[in-house]
Design a protein that fits this description.
Layout lengths: L3 H6 L17 H4 L2 E5 L2 E4 L4 E8 L8 H17 L5 E8 L3 H13 L3 H20 L2 E10 L11 H21 L3 E2 L5 H13 L3 H4 L6 H9 L7
Antiparallel strand pairs: 1-2, 2-3, 3-5, 3-6, 4-5
């Protein structure tokens, strides 16, 4: 059975097949990800990792009662959370390249020396603010499959199902804390895009993976959906 994700990550979806199907010197060769199954990352060293994203809130704008409630529910969740739980924050400078390109176009077309000076000052000012002040933050909760979780059987699908159950538990507690946890409609695509953005930190801010990325890969390789 051939899956389009195999073409991207160089491995099979079923089981934990470690047979190499990677091109020498390719991204597949050094990328630690073997596959993505039902929103769960399968690594080459046989780990199963679940990533969920939560939107931030300003804790200091909440009432004292709301703060106490959030702390109590979060403490309750930590008592039952996976031991491998990590809170990861991805911070990036705000991407202003499109704005700069527009202003440079105005600068190239402008004939007035005074207006050109204003445009140049604007570009320099925004560049300084972007460098020192304007950043974006994304918040993630990450955990991996642990033996005590006891999946219904020792298969990739069962382990992914168990991790997704853990994610649902985390989601319920975090919502009680007043946090919104994102629930993507197509989990595999969302995780693939996240990994793409993390690996390609600069390019990923400007170039998004197209919605039909799997179809595009399939067309290049002459594969659609799956086949025997």
């Amino acid at each position: 059975m051939l899956n389009l994700k195999e073409l991207i990550f160089g491995g099979r979806v079923e089981g934990l097949d470690t047979t190499s199907r990677e091109y020498a010197g390719s991204a597949q060769e050094w990328l630690p990800v073997k596959n993505i199954v039902n929103g769960v990352v399968v690594t080459k060293d046989r780990r199963f990792v679940k990533i969920i994203e939560t939107l931030p809130v300003n804790f200091h704008l909440k009432t004292i009662s709301e703060r106490q409630t959030a702390i109590a529910y979060f403490a309750a969740y930590l008592k039952i959370a996976p031991r491998s739980l990590q809170i990861r924050i991805v911070t990036q400078r705000l991407d202003m390249e499109e704005y700069f390109a527009m202003m440079r176009a105005y600068l190239a077309a402008e004939t007035s020396p005074e207006c050109r000076a204003y445009i140049e000052d604007n570009i320099a000012e925004i560049a300084d603010i972007t460098e020192n002040e304007l950043t974006t933050h994304r918040f993630f909760i990450v955990f991996q499959y642990e033996p005590q979780m006891k999946a219904r059987n020792n298969t990739v699908a069962a382990i992914a199902e168990r991790l997704n159950d853990e994610a649902d538990t985390a989601r319920r507690y975090l919502e009680l804390c007043g946090l919104e946890v994102l629930e993507p409609e197509y989990a595999d695509n969302e995780v693939l895009e996240l990994l793409y953005q993390v690996i390609n930190k600069k390019t990923g801010r400007r170039v998004r993976l197209p919605e039909g990325v799997y179809d595009m890969v399939g067309e290049v390789h002459g594969v659609f959906g799956s086949r025997e």
